[in-house]
Amino acid sequence: MPFPIVRKNGIPLYIQVKEAVLAEIKTGVWKTGDKLPTERELSEKLKVSRNTVSQAYQELEAEGVLSSVQGRGTFVCDRDDAVRIENRKELLLKIIDVAMEEGLQLGFTLEEFAEFATERARQKLEILSKVRVVFIECNREQVDYFSKKLQFDSGVSIAPLVLEDLSKDTDRYLPDVVASDLVITTFFHYDEVKELLGSRKNVLAISLDPQLETIVRIARIPMGRKIGLVSKSENFAGKVLLALKNAGLDGVDIRVFTQKMEMDIADIVHSLDVIICSPGRRREVEQHMTRRQEIIEFVYKPDVASINLLRAALIDLRRQ
Fold it and tell me: Using CA atoms in the order 6, 7, 10, 13, what is the torsion angle rounded to 10 degrees?
């Protein structure tokens, strides 16, 4: 199983590992249900760190390509959406079967079990519809974007709050934060938010990672192209550059343009071949594109573990 890992081609190693695994699956080397090598085994074979393989596996699991089973390993999922949904349904039915068996052993009838389950689900939905969450981040673009992306079907209300606003005008914003049911921030700002809130509120930290496809597109930009990063804030631009550095792309020449600069956005766009932009400025950039240019929206997303942790935290709120 030769993997084409190249260490000096500008593409992060974990992305190469991920694409190589996908290639093995697409060519039929690994089929649905096959067990993959462990992270340790694959890292030793490829001579990369275990974290590199772990990151690749996590990305593929988040996309529904792989599935990990505690104590058994990592397996190839069926890529057909209908089949995958059916598999999840089967797993849920098994969980329900176990609960029913335990209910019968406690002396309840199946009719009573169905009644209790329906009522409990209704209670949870009612609770979640009243939950108020505050999401605190350091820049307006990211906090607005993720307050929308983190919405749940249950109707949970997520209010965005910029960290600088909270620190500068604590008296104004603190009462609403304290009155909320849950405060979310990123690991990067967890200590600062905790210091501002003290013991008045528990804070849940989540991890936001650059979208894999974004990193791949930037890594594949041909040499010689004029690249610009257009964002509202210097803070967001700094995070993007740091993310690219961490991905091994710090050698890419990127000019940064923020709203603080006294330059017309049309002139900026016209001078570039590739525009990397924040979600908050994409529409503005597109309006000024007059020739064939590549636009790359730099998107962050919560990792799978953070989303699962957040869902569990929401369910546990106001436990009765």
Answer: 90
- Would 204 be classed as within a structural domain? yes
CATH of the domain at 264: 3.40.50
Q: What is the pLDDT of residue 82?
A: 41
Q: In sequence order, what are the residues at sequence separation of 6 or more whose Cβ sits closer than 8 angstroms to the Cβ of residue 133?
A: 156, 157, 158, 159, 180, 181, 182, 183, 184, 314
Q: What gap in Å lies between CA 66 and CA 34, rounded to an integer?
A: 10
What is the token pair recorded at 63?
A: 């996309």
**Tens-place pLDDT, residues 254-272:** 999 987 666 788 888 889 9
Q: Tokens in use for 179?
A: 């009155």
| DSSP structural state of residue 221 | P
Answer whether 141's CB lies under 8 Å from 278's CB: yes
- Give the CATH number, domain containing residue 22: 1.10.10.10
Among 183, 202, 197, CA closest to 137: 183
Which residues have C-beta within 8 Å of that of residue 270, sequence separation ≥ 6? Answer: 288, 290, 291
Residue 268's alpha-carbon distances to 39, 221, 227, 235, 236, in angstroms, are 45, 19, 11, 19, 18
Instruction: Determine the Cα–Cα distance for residues 117 and 44; give it in Å rounded to an integer.
Output: 47
Which residues, in sequence order, are CB contacts of 158 under 8 Å at separation 6+? 133, 134, 135, 147, 150, 151, 184
Largest Cα–Cα separation, the chain? 75
- Are 7 and 1 contacting, i.e. CB atoms less than 8 angstroms apart? no
φ/ψ (deg, to 5) at 256: -110, 130
What is the model's pLDDT at position 226? 93
pLDDT in tens, 64-109: 788 776 667 888 876 554 445 456 677 788 889 999 999 999 999 9
DSSP labels for 233-279? -HHHHHHHHHHHHHTT-TTS-EEEEETTS-S-HHHHHHT-SEEEE-G
Domain housing 143: 132-209+303-316
Say which amino acid occupies 170: T
